[in-house]
Specification:
With 198 residues, the protein is of the alpha/beta class. It has 7 helices and 6 strands. The chain has one domain: 3-Layer(aba) Sandwich (Alpha/beta knot), CATH 3.40.1280. This is tRNA-uridine aminocarboxypropyltransferase.
């Protein structure tokens, strides 16, 4: 028997995160392109980001047929949040006249690269990158390297860089509750064994 699910945050009704999800405005428009394998993931942080930002859109897929229309939003300059040799630091856009349309692929690194490969228009976008040294609060996943953040953490860091002094930290409240809930469900001993220092 399946548990009743919240239709908004897709969490079990007993663990609904909606009361913690903020309602934030941003000058930057965020376009989240989510790999289908992430939709049912227990820690779907892209969905949390999309729900908490008024100027955000979440689209699920591998190939995005309507990408030209999505990227050509009047009044915005599209940039891909993804590492690359030619990626510009986010802070370079702080004083820009046109706000950014920040395109954020959501999936494992491998799946995100595949999405770029399958969508040449996406891969051709100028890239922006986060400041180095970001520390993830994502205690349930082994990060592939230093500075590897969850999708919602990356978006918060990007927006705070672009729109300082505005804070987007409230977006992290449901994320932190989600992680605490997962740790509680697995038990402290299991968490320490699998994810603790060591």
């Amino acid at each position: 028997m399946s548990r009743i699910q919240c239709e908004r945050c897709l969490r079990p009704q007993s663990h609904c995160l909606c009361p913690l999800i903020p309602n934030l405005d941003s000058r930057t428009r965020v376009l989240l392109l989510q790999h289908p394998s992430e939709v049912k993931h227990a820690l779907n942080t892209a969905r949390l980001a999309a729900l908490g930002l008024n100027n955000a859109e979440l689209i699920v897929g591998e190939v995005f047929e309507d990408l030209p229309a999505l990227l050509n939003r009047p009044g915005y300059q599209a940039r891909l949040l993804f590492p690359g040799d030619d990626a510009q630091p986010m802070r370079a856009y702080r004083v820009s006249d046109l706000p950014l349309l920040l395109v954020v692929p959501d999936g494992t690194w491998r799946k995100a690269r595949k999405m770029l490969h399958l969508n040449p228009l996406l891969a051709a976008l100028p890239r922006v990158t986060l400041a180095e040294g970001g520390v993830s609060r994502y205690r349930l996943r082994k990060a592939p390297g230093p500075g590897a953040l969850s999708t919602v953490e990356a978006i918060v860091q990007a927006l705070e860089s672009l729109e300082a002094p505005t804070t987007f930290a409230p977006l992290l409240k449901p994320f932190e509750a989600l992680i605490e809930g997962q740790i509680a469900a697995m038990g402290e001993e299991t968490f320490q064994r699998n994810h603790g220092p060591g």
